Amino acid sequence: MDTASGADGAWQSARAKGLCYRGPRMVTGADIVRIARTLALEPRHFTQTAPAAADDPTGVVLDNARRRVNLRIANAAHGCVFHVRTLEGTGRCGLGELAPVVCRMYPVFPGPGPGPGPGQRASPPDAGGTPVGGAERDGPGRPGRPLDAAGLARAERRWAADRDHWFETVARWNALPKDIDDPPGIEDFQHYLLEAHAARETGAPWPEDVVA
Predict the structure, then answer these.
(1) pTM of the entire predicted model
(2) For residue 73, is pLDDT > 90?
(3) Is 49 exposed, middle or buried, given 0-12, 13-18 or 19+ CB atoms closer than 10 A?
């Protein structure tokens, strides 16, 4: 059991077993930008890449189209790099309210992927019952505890909007003309992601649409 008591502690332990030990998937660019800004870290310090399928809308094209990769939160020996082991031997998320939206929604998976389909619940060990707990006015819900129905609905809407922007960000990057002799790398894409997200927040044009 985690150091938190009752249902919240059971939920944290279940999330660690079902998600944190292998690391989150379905993380969006908005999640990465939010973590980078708040922790004052370049995304390269807490992300890693993995091979992506040819039809994956989050597949970032690199090396003159010779590679297609996903950008995700990095894993360490104990799972997600932000996973904190407790004295009891289980764990909890070290990001708190900065955790990716998909992590805050656990055990609900918001979209297609290796887990259950949209709106379906996982069946991890010790998941235990229906999510309960309070919700924030402007966020999915209180960190460190499962979401109630209203918080889950907000999180699903937020994740869907972030996912759509993530898909478009990757598609636009992949369509940009590249220097064949000096092709951009994943850190170049990360810088583009930060610029694209800033443009999204201010209503400005996409970075490549800005005319000097």
Answers:
(1) 0.79
(2) yes
(3) middle
